[in-house]
Amino acid sequence: MPPKNIKSGHHSKPSVQMEEENLALASKKLTEAQVEFNTSTNDDILSAIQSLKADFTKQSTDMLDAINGIKSDLLSQSHRIGEAEERIAQTEEDASTLQHKVKKLEETTEFLRNKVQDLEDRGRRSNLRLVGLPEKTEGSNMCAFIEDLLPRVLNDTFSSTPVIERAHRPKRVSANGSLME
Fold first, then answer.
1. How far apart are CA 83 and CA 77, in angstroms?
2. Rounded distance, CA 111 to CA 115, Å?
3. In this predicted model, what pLDDT tens digit does every residue of 65-82 receive, in sequence order?
4. How far is CA 77 from each of CA 70, 81, 119, rounded to the nearest angstrom?
5. d(CA 55, CA 47)
6. In this structure, how many other beta carbons lie within 10 angstroms of the beta carbon of residue 120?
C-alpha cells in the first residue's frame, strides 16, 4: 500500500501546481473581468458625460438664441421709442408755434372787433356838423363849449343840458393835398 501513497504523493505535487495554475488562471480572468468591467463602466460614464455635454450645449444654444431674440426685440423697441420721442418733440414744437399764432390771431380779432364796434357806434350816433364857428373860440374844452353853445344858438332851453360825448374840428386839406392844423 505504500506505493499508493507514493502515487498519491506524486499526484499531490502536480495538484498543487495545478491549483496554482488554476489560481493564476482565475486571477487572470478576474483581472480581465475587472478591466472589462472598468472599461464598460468608463465607457458608460464617458457616454453619460457626452450626453450631458450635448444636452448642455443644446440648452445653452437655445438660451443664447432666446437672448439674441430679446436683444433684437429690445433694439427694435428702442428704435421705435426714439422715433416716437422725435415725433412727440416735433408735435410739441408745432403746438407751441400754433398756440403763438392763435394768440396773435386772438389779439388781431379783438382789435378788429373793437374797430368794427367803434365804426358801428359812429354810424349810429347823431352827428352834428357846425359850420362857420371861428377858430380857437372853444378854448381848451371843446365838449363844454358845444354844450353851452347849442342852447344859445337854438334859442331853446332844454330840460336837461345836452351831453356831448365827443367834439373835434375837422382836419383841413391844403391846395397841394397836405393836412393843415
1. 10
2. 6
3. 999 999 999 999 999 999
4. 10, 6, 61
5. 12
6. 10
